[in-house]
Write a structure and sequence with these properties.
With 305 residues, the chain is an alpha/beta fold. It has helices at residues 21-31, 45-61, 77-82, 100-110, 123-133, 182-189, 196-203, 218-227, 231-236, 243-251, 253-259, 280-289, 293-304; strands at residues 2-5, 15-20, 65-69, 115-117, 139-144, 164-172, 176-180, 271-274. The chain has two domains: 5-181 and 266-293, Rossmann fold, CATH 3.40.50; 198-259, Orthogonal Bundle (DNA polymerase, domain 1), CATH 1.10.150.20. The chain has 13 helices and eight strands. Bound molecules: manganese (II) ion (2 copies). One manganese (II) ion is lined by residues 124, 146, 148.
Length: 305
Amino acid sequence: MGQRARRYRVGTMAHTLLLDTSSLTYRAFFALPSSITDGAGRPVNAVRGVLDMHARLIVDHAPDTCVHVFDADWRPDPRVAAYPGYKSQRPDDPEGLGEQFPLLRRVLDALGLPRVEAPGWEADDAIGVIATGAGAGDRVDIVTGDRDLLQLVRDGDADGSGPGVRVLYTVKGVSDLAVFDEAAVRAKYGVPPDRYVDFAILRGDPSDGLPGVKGVGEKTARDLVRRYPDLDALLAAAGEQTPALARRLREAGGYIAAMHQVVPVRCDVDLDWVTAERDDAALDALASAHSLEGPVGRLRDALDA
Ligand code: MN
Ligand code: MN
């Protein structure tokens, strides 16, 4: 029984954890040995990792709501149309990973936990819709291994009249989380979160197949973002740079225009929500069929506490 909603408003003063579950499942798969299998020999390491992470997040952060967000399409057509190289060099999923996604969805449904995706779009975009839809006093923590989402970070107003969005970034594996608020983004990258898109466009992101502007590394990107209010102003002032950089910026005009269609998270796409009825009998059956009794028990205890 899927519910559809264009906007998701969390309750006033609610603290919501948005788990970038597609990203976390990958992280968990590579962090935990694939020798973790069920009785039939099927790997369940990623499922175990995500369930254990969720239980620990509840204990550590005591959120009001947790939402699991999935990629509906990890390489959306509009981004590929704007820049064909987007994620074009990603290797195929390793054996044993793909089939863990349906199992994880079944476990989440049996637990009655909400999961969401944006049809045709990435988890990043569904997270963008939810995070920007948060209202005054809401707190949203995005749990992800994808630094693209740093663009969504914003501090709440001190008087509680605005929403606050943080990123809990998986530094290594899925147990070591770095908390990014506005000050932390500035400290690490030298730019505020609302300029992170400009910074990322100039710098590029090899893991997404985005080379950035030739000759512009992290430091130059940061300096240019700090010096100009936006990338149009930077391009208009290309003549103020060294001749080599001026030429590279002029040559990158088309690339930068394409990146405006690729790098910003979409905050205006439709969401598909699924919130199933909790079913403890089904949960117990799944747990024993897939050797998940430990993590399922820990997460159930955390949810019920
Ligand atoms: Mn992503
Ligand atoms: Mn991303």
